[in-house]
Amino acid sequence: MVALDRADALQDAPDLRRVAASRTDNGGVRVALSLADRFTARDLLAAEDTVGPPGSICVRLWTVSRPGATPPDLLACVTARADGRALRSTISREAPGTLPVPVGSATLTRPSTKSVALVVAPELIGRARRVAFAAEATRPGCARVRCVDSAPDKGTKTLRMR
């Protein structure tokens, strides 16, 4: 399932152009995220004189709960290691009214200088019949909505698992 995104990033947010999800042979989910411009791990770090969080490229996954009414069940993110030399992935489990709990990492690859791909293991997906997904990219140093680009522009896309 593919979601294309128009050129709509605000305030220098990384411009997400495409998010695609597919089922892996073993029942996991592969998500490919493409940006309009090339990026490196260092591009996701906030400048030393900047206050705020690092940048990230994330995908929200609803495996049990339904989008809109509840937070995603899983949040898989790509960020930079502290030294800015490499990208890293994290996966957190989310639940209403609680902080995200780290549950591992996704397999991370770089198909191109403008994209990343994450594979979420089947044990985290469980027996979901469908997985709804939406992606977001956030500019380093900014914790406000105006620094985030989402794909698809509205709502989510759904991947059938069976």
Account of the protein in words:
The chain has about 160 residues and is mainly beta. The protein has one domain (about 1-160). About 0% of the residues lie in helices and about 45% in strands. The protein is built from one helix and twelve strands; from the N terminus they run βββββββββαβββ. The strands form two sheets. Strands 4, 5, 6, 7, 10, 11 and 12 form a seven-stranded antiparallel β-sheet that branches. Strand 5 and strand 6 (about 85-95) form a beta hairpin. The radius of gyration is 15 Å and the shape is globular. The protein starts with a strand and ends with a strand. The model has no long low-confidence stretch (mean pLDDT about 90).
Task: Please specify the SSE layout and strand pairing.
Blueprint: E1 2-4, E2 16-23, E3 29-35, E4 56-62, E5 74-80, E6 87-93, E7 101-104, E8 107-112, E9 115-120, H1 122-125, E10 130-138, E11 148-151, E12 157-160
Antiparallel strand pairs: 1-2, 2-3, 3-9, 4-5, 4-10, 5-6, 6-7, 8-9, 10-11, 10-12
